[in-house]
Amino acid sequence: MGDVLAIVEQREGKIRGVSSEVVSVAARLAQGLGGAAHAILVGGSGVSAGATEMGRFGAEKILVTEDDALRDYHPQGYAQVVTDAVREGGYGAVVFAATAQGKDLAPRVAALLDVPLASDVTDFRVEDGGIVAVRPIFSGKAFASLTFSASPAMLSIRPNVFQAQESAAGGGVEAFNPEGLDPSAWTVRVGEFQPSGGGSKDVAEASMVVTGGRGMKGPENWGLLEELRDALGEDAALGASRAVIDAGWRPHSEQVGQTGKTVAPKLYFALGISGAIQHLAGMRTSQTIVAVNKDRDAPIFQVADYGIVGDLFEVLPRITEEVRKLKAGD
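Given the sequence above, the corresponding structure tokens read:
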């Protein structure tokens, strides 16, 4: 069959933004395969309230499993539900997000179905009735084109690489209650969830990102970035380059780049970042890029919409001051 199933993610009962990208990709694949895009949402009681929203992005049908044992992500429970849905629906392809949850769930489902998985996909096409998935290898220095030797084709897409495209479809919600769902038989127990970064905004989901590189000279100067983030407001998050993470200045959850997180905010500040290919791969789709670097030949200026050549420690406080003035005038 040419139908494609998209795996919708939720957190605390709210559908995550990356799910619109997943459903949109599933709709494009289904169109190429001559089928329809469906979606599945798993969660606790009431999670179905926002399910119809996925119809905006091409889902003809949304399957919903509501069970309080599945209110939060559970590896074995979610894998069982999704695997049963794939088998029952006879889908030709299944699309996950390559998020922390998707990177755990997708391999489990692939193993249960005994099929290969193409992970962290950044491009795809339908060719001769089959799917060709493209993913980076060797830290983004090359790309591999993968074909699938078994059905369904399983792939996880890198967040913020594929723009969600509205393509209105039926969006009908149907309850999906697989048989044999027995939480007492699960050997894994989820104790608690602790948000990274002390509960701060996830850099991959923020509409504004303030990212620092080696030009910040040390973790003791990160307060300057925090001041700009706070001036921008609650929709802003902190990011860091790989060199900063490797040096131990910031947590890995803030890394932007090929081996970190891909971001596509409305506004991106690259502060003290030279612009290595590895970093550009993770942020070049940002709508507006502002770069500050003392080296006028830094590669970051080739992708920046606005560039300032100067001393970061003089320029950054002035940017923060101007943002505060603009905010005060709102």
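The chain has a mean pLDDT of 92. Try to locate this feature in the token string yourself.
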